[in-house]
Design a protein that fits this description.
Elements (H helix, E strand, L loop, with lengths): L7 H4 L2 E4 L15 H6 L1 H7 L3 E4 L27 H13 L3 E6 L9 H8 L11 E2 L20 E4 L4 E4 L14 H17 L3 E4 L41 H13 L5 E4 L5 H4 L12 E2 L3 H4 L4 H14 L7 E3 L8 H4 L2 H13 L3 E5 L19 H5 L42 H4 L6 H14 L1 H4 L2 E4 L6 E8 L2 E8 L5 E3 L6 E7 L8 E3 L2 E3 L4 E6 L2
Parallel strand pairs: 1-2, 1-11, 2-3, 3-7, 7-8, 8-9, 10-11
Antiparallel strand pairs: 4-6, 5-6, 12-13, 13-14, 14-19, 15-18, 16-17, 16-19
The site of magnesium ion has 6 residues, from loops.
Length: about 525
């Protein structure tokens, strides 16, 4: 593909904001749209190209906004329509893009559609959700489970049927086999696209269609005590059905009614199934989220194999992407340790494909331990001791060393990291050796060098804990060498090379000329521009 044919989302970097936790402008302890507007210069100067914000729609907040009660409104807690228009405008003025979260699989149980649907069996919206008769003994229609614990079916006294909810009972699943539901949600997409929103991250895309015969899910032979109850079964019939691909390509058609808009899918599936969401001819999602770095052990051999398998599985012209953190998973600095967080950033920002960076990871924020009485996340509250709380990775952004890290003048909805007086944007912005500096520099060089934003990926076989690869574009070549281990390693690839270190995690090597055989300290990572 010619350089000019690459679009903003091929070349750019996506930054995820969890709006409750970014910046509070009105002192209620919860982040909001005006708060995000205040911080756009920071985001731009960091080197970000596109901002994705988690849901900001009206919602009873049973799942913190992933239970939407009005798809074309703004929750007053976050602001109003003027605020989102202003946010969009200010994002565009700075040459960035804005991506909204779309939650089409389920609505809130307080959405007018569901209130109508549950009002009677012959209501015209009855079939907009998934209603089934009880079994003869009164039990749920089949064995499908809720991701958040317990059965996926909720009995409705008034009409004597069960409705299906893959998540909370406050999040009934819409029936995507119904053409009226499809039309309603496509119109929601158009509403935002007309405003100029640059794309959507589609929540739980692989859940949207379920087996039409409602067959029982098989049990999971790998289930062990202590795992969450959803792991008891393999969701073979309740997720990832073939017909979902028709839905995704219809969504893509809506996106393609407008110029250069982006469709991202949240999909937790193994690579062979994940890549199907590109479509045979790239007629489905532009970027089915690739979550492998969230789940793989921090092991060079395993990661190298995973990258190659993923690169090999991509359909022709399917563009790769990588995610290192999000609002559902432990923060990277906690998962791999502070010592390796720099290497993780270098990996994310030098791999081939669009990176998604989770707010706060650029500072090196870690999971914050939340005392039992302060837990907010329904995933943890529903299955105490078993369901993992997602609160630790959702704590407020740390802006400065004033009270509450400059996040709010009120009481923050989740506690802050104790070390925020040191670990905050203001202190770290210009500090040598800080994670923030490292991110700024990696983002800058990624933007400047075509080899890094669109170049080919070539693995460099290496031993021990070393993960190494080349990025190439025309005459330009970069070599990335990461020591993912805790001891010194010798890097001696079957390749003659010579170059200058542009960025090193431990800065001692920066600017040095290196060649062929080198020793690499523990936790060290190098981005080297090769001489040609
Ligand atoms: C997605 C969201 C998660 C939410 C769930 C249900 O996985 O990322 O936060 O709880 O969907 O909407
Ligand atoms: Mg607020």
């Amino acid at each position: 593909m010619k350089y000019d044919n690459y679009l903003w989302w091929h070349k750019g970097v996506v930054y995820q904001i969890y709006p409750r936790s970014y910046k509070d402008s009105d002192g209620d302890g919860i982040g909001d749209l005006r708060g995000i507007i205040e911080k756009l210069d920071y985001i731009k100067n960091l080197g970000i190209d596109a901002v994705w914000i988690s849901p900001i729609y009206p919602s009873p907040m049973a799942d913190f906004g992933y239970d939407v009660s009005d798809y074309t409104g703004i929750h007053p807690m976050f602001g109003n329509m003027d605020d989102i228009d202003e946010l969009l405008n200010e994002v565009h003025i700075r040459g960035m893009k804005l991506i909204l979260d779309l939650v089409p699989n389920h609505s809130s149980d307080q959405h007018p559609w569901f209130l109508e649907s549950r009002s009677s069996k012959d209501n015209p919206k009855r079939d907009w959700y998934i209603w089934k008769d009880p079994t003869p003994d009164g039990g749920p229609p089949n064995n499908w489970l809720s991701v958040f614990g317990g059965p996926g079916w909720e009995y409705d006294e008034k009409t004597g049927q069960y409705y299906y909810h893959a998540f909370l009972k406050e999040q009934p699943d819409l029936n995507w086999r119904n053409p009226e539901v499809q039309k309603a949600m496509f119109d929601v997409m158009r509403f935002w696209l007309e405003k100029g929103v640059d794309g959507f991250r589609v929540d739980v895309m692989w859940h949207m269609i379920k087996d039409d015969q409602f067959r029982n899910d098989p049990s999971n032979p790998e289930y062990e005590k202590g795992m969450n109850s959803y792991s008891r079964q393999i969701p073979a019939y309740s997720t990832d059905q073939d017909e979902v691909h028709d839905i995704v390509s219809k969504m893509r058609n809506v996106i393609d009614e407008y110029d250069e808009r982006l469709l991202i899918g949240e999909i937790y599936l193994p690579v062979d199934k994940l890549v199907k969401y590109y479509g045979h001819e790239n007629e489905e999602a532009h970027l089915p989220f690739n979550f492998q770095l969230l789940e793989l052990p921090w092991n060079a051999a395993k990661i190298r194999t995973a990258i190659s398998e993923y690169e090999g599985a991509l359909p022709e012209n399917g563009w790769p992407n990588w995610v290192l953190g999000n609002h559902d998973k432990s923060r990277i600095a906690s998962r791999v340790g502070k010592e390796q967080a720099g290497n993780a950033a270098m990996l994310l920002l030098t791999l081939r494909g669009t990176p998604t960076l989770y707010y706060g990871d650029e500072l090196g924020m870690e999971d914050v331990e939340i005392s039992k009485d302060k837990i907010q996340d329904p995933q943890a509250l529903n299955e105490p001791g078993v369901g993992r709380s997602r609160d630790p990775e959702r704590t407020p952004m740390q802006w400065d060393d004033s009270e509450n890290a400059g996040f709010t003048s009120g009481e923050p909805w989740l506690p802050l990291m104790v070390n925020y007086k040191e670990l905050n944007v203001k202190k770290q912005w210009n500090k040598e050796d800080s994670m923030l500096q490292l991110h700024r520099r990696l983002l800058r060089i990624r933007t400047e060098e075509p080899a890094l934003h669109i170049g080919d990926y070539v693995p460099v076989p290496s031993k021990g804990d070393i993960l190494a690869y080349l990025r190439k574009y025309e005459q330009d070549e970069f070599l990335v060498v990461l020591n993912l281990g805790v001891s010194e390693e010798v890097f001696e690839p079957q390749l003659e090379w010579q170059g200058t270190v542009k960025i090193s995690i431990q800065k001692d090597l920066e600017g040095q000329k290196l060649k062929n055989k080198i020793t690499i300290a523990q936790n060290q990572g190098l981005l080297i521009k090769l001489d040609r």
